[in-house]
Amino acid sequence: MGQPLHGLPGKTRAGPALAFPDNRPSRGTLYLLGPYGLTYAPREGALQTFRASLQELRQAFLSVLFPAPCRLCGELLDTATRIPLCRSCVTSFRPLTGPCCVRCGRPFVSAVVLDREGAPLCHVCQRGLYDFDFARSYTAYTETVAGAIILLKYQQVTPLAGWFASILRKTFDANSEGCRADVVVPVPAHALRLRERGYNQAELIARPLARSLGLPCRSYLLLRNRPRPDKLRLTVRERWRTVRGAYTIRYGLRVDNLRVLLVDDVLTTGATLDACSRALRKAGAAKVVALTVARAIPWREQAAIEPPRREPNG
């Protein structure tokens, strides 16, 4: 044992002393009280560690005083954060990392397609239907992911947008060569939708993503001049027909020779990204790439991509 740190209180201070082991940290070390007791850290970076410890303590304290349910599954949250999702739901957002179409990112169920000569393309890209050059999504559009997007889109849980931006940054970094861009543009909402919701969820995601990339976000470049039909579910053909010509560049603006990064919440058929890309091309865009939080997968293929469902407790 090393030298005593101090004795117990009292007139004689004769109580047993606290002592460090011989391998105690050297001078220049700060002792921090964290959620798991007394820890130590070098002075370099100690302030950040201290702040993180305080934040964890604060979240744990608030979660005990004001327990709240997860907005997706109802399980009580063990931390108090601005994102009202439990850890289990958050971890169910699994990134799409398997084999996929090199152009639009549609996942392939089997890796056999990679054995073919040349770049593997899905049946849509083989027919050259998409105008954009490159697209990727972070995760599959599962039931849990759909619930989180609905919270942002229709229930004003806007802090989710910042989290979506952070996971999209991971997708960007994993595909940095294909995603290179000069400007970030969110897929616009029609004026009627903006009045109903008060915001465009794609723009809320695009702005923090653009900041993290050091790129300008130009939400005013694209306009939607025709609203989406009120019909809740559209067929594939209806989706393509309703967005054809529905997007345009704001009058007098150009994007000559710029590489544009489109941002949206979900890639369903790709019709919306295609329509936006065509409008940007007419305004001079040199390249159009796209990132979305989720990608809709045909139900026959979901079993190979969707994470296993969580069993209820008990």
Query: What fraction strand?
Result: 15-25%
- Which architecture of the largest domain would the CATH scheme give at its second level? 3-Layer(aba) Sandwich
Helix fraction, binned, reads 25-40%
Compute the number of structural domains.
2
Number of strands: 10
What does the main sheet amount to? 4 strands, parallel
- Termini separation comes to 48 Å
The helix tally amounts to: 11
Q: Structural class, from helix and strand content?
A: alpha/beta
Question: What is the CATH class of the largest domain?
Answer: Alpha Beta
Query: What is the mean predicted local confidence, pLDDT?
Result: 80
Provide the CATH topology of the largest domain: Rossmann fold
Order of helices and strands: EEEEHHHEHHHEHHEHEEHEH
Uncertain segments: 1-26, 31-42, 307-314
